[in-house]
Amino acid sequence: MDPVSVKAVIRGPQGILFLKNPRNELELPGGRPNHRETLELALTREIEEECGLNITSATYMGSQSCEIVPGRSVLLVFFYCTLPEGRLVLSDEHTAYEWVDLDAEPPHNMPSFYWEFCSQLRNDHNASEYAAAARPEYPLHTGEADRQRLMVTAEVYNAATTEFLRKFLPKTGRILEVGCGHGQIAQWLAANAPEATVIGLDNDAEQISLAKSAASAHGINNLSFRVGDLSDLASISQLKRKFELITCRFTLLHIGQRRPVVEALLGLLTPLGVLVVEEPSLGSLFCIPHVAGFEQANAAISAYGESRGVNYNCIEDIWSIITKMNVQIRDARFSQPTVWKKEHKALVKLSFQQLSPRLVAHGILEEHQAKRIEQSLDSEYMDDLVISGGLRTLQIAMSVKGRS
């Protein structure tokens, strides 16, 4: 009888978690049960040993006898696991890890039986749970609890955003802003294109409620808002009428698998329509002179995204995705604001305060480290002699080739 090995299929926003073994092959995390150990206990133990993660749920998917190396077969028993809390830390058994996108081509160093079995998850096993696992975890506050941070964000970034958007603003027709938050950009679009119809889309009902109230208070009548989730492409496709302009900012940042979202948005354009995307790189932040807390805060946030399968330094990824599509790039530029006013520097502290509990809960920081970073941001970084660069963003305007 073949020896038994339990394997975890762990789904994150960018795909399935695979580990690279000493043979330079990608394999699912897991291993053999000890004497009298149940498969479930073995799975929990192996994932903690190999990845530093604590499995909280496991659903049996099936088993298959596979030839791991020539002449040596092992009965692999697969369990589907939701993405655990905590920071992914590899043991000495593996050299690296990757989140593998099942919608892309199979990696050259992955055995075919792993690819075939994991693909079943996407095709016919627990489809609703798979979709839920693919939905990104939005780490910041929403609604009234995020009002101050979003107001400062608007003061720092809106000028460059609207300057770029103005070149593609249609006089009439339909305009869509996705990830509209409290609706500042949507209001600007509606005010500057009074004969157009503007829709703001966000996945948080409280955000939409506040956006509606603000638009009503300003007497803007050509603007409406609705709840919709970019991770649920079906909700996007329900917007059946096409748009002359679609824009999103700081939205793809939080999504692991970005290509399907960009494709869905391009599909909502009219023949002459334009999609404008503006997304940042967290690695572009800097301050002069050096402030340790500033750099530590950004490093911790980046590590949090990586642990959840989301790369917050997304400029390169988005450019690579778009340039491989059937699109005409109408314009592209980098933009990075200078942040030196105290009221603007508060954005860094507000963002870290919101993220700090998650950074501690996920094992990125110890509680005392988080407090020390916050103190540094509150004192050293806020000093009048400290100046910093905000997020460098990549702004791209594109249309679909061959539609005009």
List the helices and strands and how they pair.
Layout: E1 4-12, E2 15-20, E3 26-27, E4 30-31, H1 39-51, E5 59-69, E6 72-81, E7 96-100, H2 112-123, H3 127-134, H4 147-166, E8 172-178, H5 184-192, E9 195-202, H6 205-217, E10 223-227, H7 233-237, E11 243-249, H8 259-266, E12 269-281, E13 286-288, H9 292-307, H10 315-323, E14 327-335, E15 338-339, H11 342-361, H12 367-381, E16 387-389, E17 392-400
Parallel strand pairs: 1-6, 8-9, 8-11, 9-10, 11-12
Antiparallel strand pairs: 1-2, 1-4, 2-3, 2-7, 5-6, 12-17, 13-16, 14-17, 15-16
How would you portray this structure in words?
This protein is α/β, with parallel strands linked by helices and 404 residues long. It has twelve helices and 17 strands. The protein has helices at residues 39-51, 112-123, 127-134, 147-166, 184-192, 205-217, 233-237, 259-266, 292-307, 315-323, 342-361, 367-381; strands at 4-12, 15-20, 26-27, 30-31, 59-69, 72-81, 96-100, 172-178, 195-202, 223-227, 243-249, 269-281, 286-288, 327-335, 338-339, 387-389, 392-400. Strands 1, 2, 3, 4, 5, 6 and 7 form a seven-stranded mixed β-sheet that branches. A seven-stranded mixed β-sheet has the order 10-9-8-11-12-17-14, with helices on both faces. Strands 13-16-15 form a three-stranded antiparallel β-sheet. Strand 1 (4-12) and strand 2 (15-20) form a beta hairpin. Helix 4 (147-166) packs across helix 11 (342-361) and helix 11 (342-361) runs antiparallel to helix 12 (367-381). The longest helix is centred in the middle third of the chain and has 20 residues, at 147-166. It starts with a strand and ends with a strand. The model is unreliable at 125-134 (pLDDT under 50).
